[in-house]
Amino acid sequence: MVNDPICGMYVNESTDSITSERNGTKYYFCSNSCRLKFERPEKEFKSLRLALTISWPLSIIVLLLTYVLHFPYYLFVLLVLSGVVQFYPGLKFYKGLVDAIRNKGTNMDMLIAIGTTAAFLYSAAVVIAPHIGVVHNVYFDSSSLIISLILTGDYLQHLAEKNATSALDKLLKLQPSVVHRLDGTNVEDIDAKDISVGDILLVKPGEKVPADGTVIEGTSEVDESAISGESMPVLKELGSKLMVATINGAGSLTMRVERTGADSTLSKIIAIVESAASKKVEIQRLADRVSSYFVPLVIFIAIVSSSVWFFFGASGLSTAILVFVSVVIIACPCAFGIATPAALLVGSGKASENGILIKSGEAVEVSRKINAIIIDKTGTITTGKPSVAEIAPNVGTDERELLYIAASAELKSEHPIAKAVLLKASEYAIKPDMPSEFSYSAGSGIYAKVKGKSVRLGNYGPGSDKTRTDAYASMLGKGYTVVTVLEGNSVLGYIGISDSLRPEAKSAISSLKSLGMEVWMVTGDNERSASSVASAVGIANVMAGASPVDKAQKVKELQSKGMKVAVVGDGINDAPALSQADLSIAIGAGTDIAIESGQVVLMKSNIADVPKLFRLSRKILAKIRQNLAWAFGYNIVLLPIAAGALVPLAGFSIYSILPVLSAFAMAMSSTIVVSNSLLLKRTRV
To answer: Catalytic site residues?
Structure first.
């Protein structure tokens, strides 16, 4: 059993034939009206507006004719005007009723169609054949106003839902409509929908990247904030990956298209946000069971209550009809159905704006139970890029000279440590010279000749010169990789290389602890380096030298103690642990592997987003509970009132206004659920 994504009604997919597919996900609907609203919301919104422009003026005229303007044969005028409202703006409810019968199910349209038809047909019988009854009251005003009010509720709900899906709308509008395709030296402007894999495209300064691909020419900075949430532009050069809908900076780029349409990063993100709202959570299951029996139960209550008042309460036929109408109109099964998806849709949209992709409702619910979290070191707590942490020159050499010699020797190397040394030299405004000779020995280091001097850099230990071995030992104690710089056999000094900490790591770990979690760092790195990093960010529980299998085993060990475990990893070597975890959080800058492997994906690769995820998940769950409390409370309180609970106090005269008040309450109930969910957009994470 599934929920209609529009109205939230319970749908049996085995008998339901009204379906639609989007981004690889199949959706089921209780009526064609809901399907059309899903597939072409703007067109359906225009139809709804047209229905309102007809129903409200006619309903007001019907109201005036009923209570103010009486003239010969005015009842026939009422019959005609209310009939137009009943069967033109109200036609959508009859279509929904037919759809429900065909699919052997129930929906909200069934209640509205039955209720308004009962009031209209009774009134029509009074006008056409007044001699058959002793009561001559008509309720055309009730049937017309009920339809107008419910359509108004649909209109308000549509506006609220449009606001709720604004994050998705922004994503959908990101892709450019026109792109520049290169054919040799010719540039051809084509529709973005006609892009094919392998096309060569030109992305001019300030334009949006039209597809996922690779830079084959040019250099520029690209704003990826729309996709990853990262505020700083990212440098793109030959071989760099480009994502659709990101914005090119001042340079011109030529790219080769690698993925289009549903395979693109943007489409995958949209599919994730949409599917998060359609997946069930445990808290919704009770509401689903209630809503599956709700419509038959309401009709049963309506028949019983109206019969009891007619046969045992001396209400008269007209009042019994109004009791029936009030009960079926005031009931709102939709509030049960949309309580969870409305909150999940707004919440997952809010998360995506912060670069957090929540792939399912289960992830939100499981996050509430997490009390242990395992975090990888490299690329998660640290940047994953080596950097120079400390420079210790020996006597007779200063820092600038040591950096100049090291950078010049490393100038021909592509090793990550070489890049770290060269970056540090550039920070000192040191311009290295090209070595006249260069060679590399795996596991040892490099040899180079710099201005005629023989220089070696690498894992050579403290050397024979003992003047600064204390600096060497100190660097090792801090967990650094120590590069010894030698000229001939003389040690010029040491350069400490570390995988630098992410600046937000310490505060993120502190936040996770404040949320009541036991934090573990499990890494394949050595004990000394792992302990140093853990100490720097405040993690007491460390497991070093762990293989991917060891990481998964650690998850099992914690789970065996009754703990619910989340794992934060890059989705590659952490895949076994992510699969074993109760909640898998992939941190990978929007890579395919991360998107596929995690229940949650942190697009910015920012560990500070982990506590944000848990805080936001708790707020989403709070909204779901509020929505369900409203849905249950609304129906529990108002159904007895509609059935006659106030009659002993107010008498049967209350039914002169109760059907219309019932329609107003029902029209607002679902809108209130969506509006309450919208408050998540204001939440701060």
So the answer is: 376
Full set of structural domains in the chain with CATH:
2-168+285-345+620-682 (no CATH), 178-271 (2.70.150.10), 355-382+502-613 (3.40.50.1000), 385-500 (3.40.1110.10)
- Say how far apart CA 447 and CA 629 lie, in whole Å: 72
pLDDT tens figures, 231-270: 567 889 999 999 888 889 889 999 999 988 777 777 777 7
What one-character-per-residue DSSP string does 635-667 give?
HHHHHHIIIIITHHHH-GGGGGTHHHHHHHHHH
**Taking the model in full, what pTM does it have?**
0.74
Q: What angle do CA 27, 29, 33 make, to 5 degrees?
A: 125
Contacts of 30 (CB under 8 A, 6+ apart): 4, 7, 9, 11, 16, 18, 96, 99, 100, 103, 105, 106, 107, 108, 109
Tell me the per-residue pLDDT of 151-210, one tens digit each, with 9 for 90 and over.
998 888 777 767 666 555 666 666 778 899 998 888 999 988 889 999 999 999 989 899
* Residue in 599, 591, 540 with CA at minimum distance from that of residue 360: 599
Distance from C-alpha of 376 to C-alpha of 66, rounded to nearest angstrom: 73
Quick one: which of 533, 532, 530, 526 has its CA closest to 501?
Answer: 533
Q: Which residue has the tokens 């009031």?
A: 119
Whole-number Å distance between alpha carbons of 340 and 185: 54
Q: Across the strands, what pairs with 566?
A: 373, 583
- The alpha carbon of 485 is separated from its chain's Cα centroid by a whole number of angstroms, namely 51
